Each structure stands twice: as structure tokens, then as C-alpha cells.
Recover the amino acids of this structure.
């Protein structure tokens, strides 16, 4: 049999990083080809090349044996390539049916452009029925839960003839039941000879549904093998390729006073959460995407409101919904998405570093440029931020360096509690290690750290204690050394 | 299974403002609540309503159009000069409308292709249109031979079965726009542009093309407004549209059309425009001068936003309570 699609020597460079380095890959009709690799390994970039979002710097794409450039998403669509993105691409204020047919609406009268709402709803109903999705097509997307929205995303991709479907982390926010439904859906697509790429961080899934696996690491292809020829341990070793002990330098210190105490906190995403963090402790908060961890952090810091429950810092009540006050009391939140929440990309390193602490640094309101610069430079030295000047704009830095600037910004606040939300997502191993040593330094100086992370090895390697969240609730607490990867995963998959 | 529900945030603040304003004038302005005066409010609303439709669609697509007032003027002046030169009336009006449409297209081109922020692009167009209108008219109202074009008087002041032709044409144009908006791809694509234009791109729809469509439509409305204004006031005044852009933006906003929320409400926009016309009418009955109208229009914008924020908070509290109840 001929491969339906073949990639040859695909290379893509972004400023400062080679995202894809001469990748070869092929896929056959009816095959589920899984892509495995860490965050930043190049899986999503590769799929974006395939779907016409990115143009490769070098390399050729063959469709049915013919060299076929894919210059735009439209071109990919015409070739029958469908993407199911990790982020949801739905319009909240429109109905399910309108979303499914977005961009290829059905018409009552094509010349006048009159849409056929009835037909679209009927067709949507049929599509949803064949996929066993019990959702009314006239409902607006905003009324649906995340899992349901994900199913609509899939229905949308399959509403037109599809030859190659790419699933990019489709299960990250689905419940077990929904995942099962998704898998039976994939099985039925296989029978229709549709080729599928499947990306997931949940390695167990790959063995369940994959035919072949390709492992990517730092933009390079490590191996392609039939999934039956590889064990989980081999797979993990190929993905990570490193000695875990060396990566996580954490040395526990004797914990002190309770710094953070959360009692029964409840809001839209969090269900009755109680936890504590002591001085000198790194507490890991593990769980799947959508488990409510980020929402908990936002509520604790006062960005989001909550109903029942309270938050205490060193025994004093932290007011609800007041980040300004939370920061004054000594809480720092290093947000998950540094590009939109943590950094002003056009501003310089200096400005980014000092923006949160200007009022502390210059009590009378007048900024002394010299002192500001010295302070900024001190942190650049301490954190080994790779730059020749503090005046360089943050947008020019690599992901890891940007993350260090965000860390510097919050270190300056000399907070009692640091909440790190996915501190090492998308940054390279070297930068990760230095972020870890900074965290270690912080707890030695008696700060308390709450670390949210989806990287299980990171949680296991760095935490003194671990809370596992699922479905908005804390499912389990582990002491250091007590937890194993399998144990943590077991509770992470539990639905509250 | 989930059902569509009513959210307070879907209610335009214009509804509340209109009720308050209407009751206030009905009680305190003698002669306000008469059939004759109410009809004249509606007639006075025709042109603001046309403009507000275009501007509302631009705003809900995450754009902004500040040029509509002066583009209306330019369209009117163009049409007036052609009438003065003796061009057949239908052709002169068509060219007037096309002038506005072309300005709208240029706005769209600047935004979609030259990547100018809508605020800058339409601010530029606002000045260009005003400058051209004043140059072409030599800063004086343009008069044409009225007797030569009786049809214009019919449009401006005539009536069919007791209904003003002017209002009839306005309602007809509005109906067409609303029909097209809700019955074609326009609404889907405009909401998507406003909510997250990346989604449109990934769905294989040209973002640039639809941005141009949206701005062109707004220019078209200003063009239609311009020639209707000519018929109404029987001359083309180079200052007639000044300030209309602000009324259109305020009307659209209090009508529930905001940037970057990915939704909108054309009926709300029309009510917003009628609300402002009502205020103008009521104040003039009470012998308050023009400048008080400006003060009040500005204040209404703020009040409208405050009401909306209030709705957002109430909805948010409701959500929190539901979440607690289910936990």
C-alpha cells in the first residue's frame, strides 16, 4: 500500500530555536500514527506545517505520492486534512450547528447567499448522531462544558470529507467516559480508511489506539516504530533521554510555619479545596489540564472570586477578589501563560522586571533610573539571564529566558508564598534546571512554594508534598517519596 | 441536555435607558407624548439608524468606524454637485451612494491589507472626507434647481397613505440589512471576527475579505444616508454629518454591540439610535440648547457601560451560586 502522506526533510526555524530539524514521516490509510515527545519537542509545530498554518523552511510534503505544497489552511482543507486543535476554536455566541458549518455553510439560495438553517441543523444532528454525541445542535457553544465543546470540535472537523485527521491532545480535558467515546469514534474512522495523527501526553493512550509511534525530541525525530515493538519504559526513555536524578536538584529543608492555608474554597471550577503550604516547602499540585489547578491559584491570589471558603496567609485572612492586597500580603503568582499574563513583550527586560516593584523601590514616586537599572542587572546576573543588555525587549528572548525574566519580576517582590503555574512549560532542559535551582534557593530562604505542573517527573522530582487534583477537587495528598508516577496518575484520572 | 438560556448580559442597556428617558420626557416635556411628535422622532431617527447599523456591525467584528458622519457629508455633497450640474437624479444618487461605499472600502483596505488599527484608519478617513466635502462645496451649502427634481421632494417630504416616504425608504433599507445580516454568512463571520479571528482563518475563510466587507457595508450605509439627507434638507451642507459618527458609535454601544465579545444585536443598535434621537427631541421641546444634548449623549455612553457592567456582575454572581449549589 502507498502512504497517503509523506513528509521529507521538514525543517522549521523560529527566532532562536530550531523547532523542526529535517523530519521524515509517513502515514497510511486507516493508520493511527501517534506522535510522542515532551512539550516543545516539535509535535504541534509539525502538525501546523501539515495543516498549512506554518510554512517549512525546507523539505517536501507528498500527498498520494505527489509533491504537494500546503501554503494555507484552506489548501490543507481541500486536501482533506483536518485538524482538531488543542485549544478550542469555536465561536461561543453561535449555535453548535453554525459552528460545525463555519466556513462551509449550506445554502437555500447560493446566489443570494441565503443560509439554510434548517438543513444545517438537520445535518448537524445527523453528524452528532453518527458520532454518538448527545448534544442539541441549536444550543449556543457557551452553554456547553469543555468536554462537550471538544466533541463539537471533532464533529466540525468530520463534517466534510476527511482523509487525514490530526488529533492534538484531544483528551486533555475529557472525562473517562468521553475518552472512551472518542476512542470508539477513532476506531470507526479507521474502518473508513481515514489516516490519523494522534498527539497525547498520556502515554497509556498511545498504546491503546496507536499503530505506529514516532518519537520527537528537541525538534528531531528519534525513532519510528510499530507500537507493538516498544515498551512503555523504552518509550519514556526515548522521549526524555536523561537521567532524572541530575535534572532535579531539590534538597528538602525542614519545614517551618504554615504559610498558606486554604479552607474549603469553592467556586465555578474549584470544589471545597483545603490545603496547606509551609515555609521551606515545595508543594506540588498535580493533575490533568482542566482539573482546576490554575483556577485555584487564581482564586487564592484574588484574580478570580470565590463563594465559600477562606484563604489564610501566615494566619491572616487574605481578602477575596483583591490581587493588589494579596500581593501586599506577600503572595506572588507566576502565571501559566507568560506571553499574555506575565510579560509585556515590547518592553525591555528592565521594565518587565521592575514593573511589579516600582512602588516598593521608589517610595516617593520618582524613579531613579540608575537604581532601577542596577536592580534589574543584579537579577539578570543572579538568575543567569542570557542577554547582553537589560534594555533588550522581552519579545526577542527565547522561551526559557523569558520565563527567567518573569521569575525575576516576582522574586523582587520578596514574597512569602510563590505560586508557580507550569514554571517550565515549553522551555529547554538547561533553562529548566536553572529555574529549579532558583526554587531551591527560595525555600532555603524560608519562602513557601506551591508549584502547579503537568510534568509528572517534575512534580515527583521537586516536591516535598504533592496534592493531586481532578474535577476541581483535591483527590489525594502524598508525602515526599510516597508517590509514584502510577499512583499520582491514578488519582489524576479520578473524577470528583 | 443543555438548552439556550437567557443571560442578562444579552439585554442591551439601551432598553433601560430608553424606558427611563421616554417616561421622563412624557411626564415633564409638554407635547412630547403626541402622535405628531412621536412620528417626528421616528423620522429624525432614520438617518442615525442607517449609520448605527453599519457601525454596529463594524464594532461587533472588533473594528471601529469614526468616519461615517463625514463620509455621509461627502456622499451628500457629491450627489448635490452632480444634481446642480444637471445629472439625472437616479445617476446622481447612485454616484453619491457609491462615494460612501468607496470610502468604506478604503477603510476596510487600510485595516485588512495595510494593517492599520481601525481607530487610525477611520480617523484618517474622517478628515479626508471632511476636507474633500468642504473643498468640493467651497465650504458653502450646494443648492440645485429643486423644480427639476420633483422626485427628491417626494422622497424628502412626501407621504404614501399618510406614511412619510422618507421613513419608508429608511425602514426598507434597514430591513434589507437586518435580513442579510441574520440570513447569510455575515453574522457568523462577523461574530467570529469579533470573538477570535484566528478561528475564521483556521476555518478556511478569508479574514481580510470579510473585514473589507464589513467596512464597505458601513460606508454604504453612510452613502445612503448622505443622499437621503440631500432629499430631506433640499441642499447639500458640508457640515451636516459632523457629530453623527459619535451618535452612531454611542447608539451601537448602548445597543449591546461591543468590541471583542463576538456577538452583537442590530435591534439593540436601532433602539440605541432611537434613544439618542428621543433625547435630542425631548431636550429641544424643553428648550435646552444643543450643547446640553452633547453633554447628555456623552453621559449616556458612560451610563450604558455602567449598566452593562452591572449586568455582568449579576450574571457572575449567579454563576458562582450555581457552582456552589452543584458542589
Amino acid at each position: 500500500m502507498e502512504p497517503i502522506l509523506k513528509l521529507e526533510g521538514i525543517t522549521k526555524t523560529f527566532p532562536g530555536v530550531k523547532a523542526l530539524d529535517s523530519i521524515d514521516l509517513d502515514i497510511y490509510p486507516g493508520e493511527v500514527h501517534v506522535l510522542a515527545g515532551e512539550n516543545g519537542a516539535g509535535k504541534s509545530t509539525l502538525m501546523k506545517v501539515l495543516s498549512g498554518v506554518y510554512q517549512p523552511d525546507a523539505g517536501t510534503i507528498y500527498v498520494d505520492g505527489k509533491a504537494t505544497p500546503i501554503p494555507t489552511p484552506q489548501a490543507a482543507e481541500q486536501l482533506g486534512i483536518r485538524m482538531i486543535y488543542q485549544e478550542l476554536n469555536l465561536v461561543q455566541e453561535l449555535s453548535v450547528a453554525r459552528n460545525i458549518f463555519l466556513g462551509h455553510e449550506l445554502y437555500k439560495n447560493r446566489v443570494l447567499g441565503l443560509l439554510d438553517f434548517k438543513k444545517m441543523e438537520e445535518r448537524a444532528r445527523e453528524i452528532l448522531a453518527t458520532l454518538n454525541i448527545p448534544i442539541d445542535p441549536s444550543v449556543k457553544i457557551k452553554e456547553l462544558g469543555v468536554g462537550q465543546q471538544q466533541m463539537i470540535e471533532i464533529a466540525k472537523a468530520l463534517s466534510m470529507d476527511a482523509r487525514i485527521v490530526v488529533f492534538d491532545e484531544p483528551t486533555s480535558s475529557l472525562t473517562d467516559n468521553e475518552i472512551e467515546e472518542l476512542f470508539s469514534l477513532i476506531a470507526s474512522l479507521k474502518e473508513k480508511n481515514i489516516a490519523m495523527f494522534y498527539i497525547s501526553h498520556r502515554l497509556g493512550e498511545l498504546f491503546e489506539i496507536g499503530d505506529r509511534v514516532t518519537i520527537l525530541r528537541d525538534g528531531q525525530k528519534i525513532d519510528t516504530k510499530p507500537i507493538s515493538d516498544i515498551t512503555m519504559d523504552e518509550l519514556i526513555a526515548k522521549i526524555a533521554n536523561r537521567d532524572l536524578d541530575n535534572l532535579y536538584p531539590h534538597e528538602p529543608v525542614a519545614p517551618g510555619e504554615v504559610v498558606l492555608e486554604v479552607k474549603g474554597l469553592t467556586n465555578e471550577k474549584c470544589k471545597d479545596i483545603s490545603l496547606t503550604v509551609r515555609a521551606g516547602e515545595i508543594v506540588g499540585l498535580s493533575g490533568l489540564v482542566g482539573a482546576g489547578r490554575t483556577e485555584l491559584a487564581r482564586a487564592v491570589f484574588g484574580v478570580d472570586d470565590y463563594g465559600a471558603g477562606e484563604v489564610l496567609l501566615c494566619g491572616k485572612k487574605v481578602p477575596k477578589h483583591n490581587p493588589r492586597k494579596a500581593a501586599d500580603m506577600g503572595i506572588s503568582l507566576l502565571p501559566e501563560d507568560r506571553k499574555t499574563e506575565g510579560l509585556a513583550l515590547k518592553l525591555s527586560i528592565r521594565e518587565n522586571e521592575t514593573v511589579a516593584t516600582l512602588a516598593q523601590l521608589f517610595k516617593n514616586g520618582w524613579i531613579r533610573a540608575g537604581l532601577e537599572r542596577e536592580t534589574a542587572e543584579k537579577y539578570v546576573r543572579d538568575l543567569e539571564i542570557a542577554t547582553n543588555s537589560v534594555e533588550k525587549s522581552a519579545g526577542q528572548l527565547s522561551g526559557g529566558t523569558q520565563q527567567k525574566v518573569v521569575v525575576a519580576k516576582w522574586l523582587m517582590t520578596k514574597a512569602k508564598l510563590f505560586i508557580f503555574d507550569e514554571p517550565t512549560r515549553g522551555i529547554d532542559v538547561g533553562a529548566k534546571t536553572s529555574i529549579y535551582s532558583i526554587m531551591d534557593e527560595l525555600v532555603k530562604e524560608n519562602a513557601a512554594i506551591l508549584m502547579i505542573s503537568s510534568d509528572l517527573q517534575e512534580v515527583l522530582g521537586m516536591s516535598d508534598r504533592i496534592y493531586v487534583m481532578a474535577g476541581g477537587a483535591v483527590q489525594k495528598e502524598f508525602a515526599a517519596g510516597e508517590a509514584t508516577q502510577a499512583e499520582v496518575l491514578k488519582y489524576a484520572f479520578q473524577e470528583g | 441536555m443543555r438548552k439556550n438560556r437567557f443571560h442578562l448580559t444579552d439585554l442591551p442597556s439601551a432598553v433601560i435607558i430608553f424606558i427611563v428617558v421616554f417616561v421622563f420626557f412624557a411626564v415633564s416635556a409638554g407635547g412630547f407624548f403626541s402622535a405628531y411628535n412621536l412620528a417626528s422622532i421616528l423620522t429624525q431617527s432614520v438617518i442615525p439608524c442607517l449609520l448605527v447599523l453599519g457601525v454596529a456591525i463594524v464594532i461587533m467584528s472588533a473594528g471601529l468606524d469614526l468616519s461615517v458622519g463625514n463620509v455621509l457629508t461627502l456622499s451628500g455633497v457629491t450627489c448635490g454637485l452632480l444634481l446642480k450640474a444637471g445629472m439625472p437624479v437616479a445617476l446622481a444618487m447612485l454616484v453619491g451612494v457609491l462615494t460612501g461605499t468607496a470610502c468604506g472600502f478604503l477603510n476596510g483596505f487600510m485595516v485588512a491589507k495595510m494593517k492599520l488599527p481601525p481607530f487610525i484608519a477611520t480617523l484618517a478617513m474622517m478628515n479626508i472626507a471632511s476636507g474633500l466635502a468642504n473643498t468640493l462645496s467651497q465650504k458653502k451649502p450646494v443648492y440645485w434647481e429643486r423644480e427639476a427634481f420633483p422626485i427628491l421632494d417626494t422622497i424628502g417630504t412626501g407621504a404614501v397613505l399618510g406614511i412619510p416616504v422618507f421613513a419608508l425608504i429608511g425602514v426598507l433599507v434597514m430591513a434589507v440589512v437586518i435580513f442579510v445580516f441574520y440570513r447569510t454568512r455575515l453574522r457568523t463571520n462577523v461574530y467570529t471576527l469579533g470573538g477570535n479571528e484566528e478561528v475564521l482563518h483556521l476555518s478556511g475563510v478569508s479574514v481580510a475579505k470579510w473585514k473589507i466587507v464589513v467596512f464597505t457595508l458601513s460606508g454604504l450605509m453612510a452613502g445612503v444616508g448622505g443622499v437621503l439627507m440631500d432629499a430631506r434638507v433640499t441642499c447639500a451642507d458640508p457640515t451636516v454629518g459632523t457629530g453623527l459618527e459619535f451618535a452612531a458609535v454611542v447608539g451601537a454601544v448602548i445597543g449591546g454591540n461591543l468590541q471583542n465579545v463576538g456577538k452583537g444585536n442590530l435591534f439593540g443598535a436601532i433602539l440605541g439610535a432611537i434613544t439618542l434621537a428621543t433625547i435630542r427631541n425631548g431636550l429641544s421641546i424643553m428648550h435646552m440648547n444643543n450643547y446640553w444634548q452633547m453633554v447628555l449623549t456623552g453621559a449616556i455612553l458612560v451610563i450604558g457601560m455602567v449598566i452593562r457592567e452591572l449586568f455582568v456582575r449579576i450574571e457572575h454572581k449567579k454563576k458562582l451560586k450555581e457552582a456552589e449549589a452543584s458542589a
The interface with chain A takes residues 1-5, 180, 183-185, 188, 191-192, 195-196, 198-205, 261-263, 316, 319-321, 323-324, 327 of chain B (CB under 8 Å). The first helix of chain B runs from residue 13 to 28. Chain B has a mean pLDDT of 92.
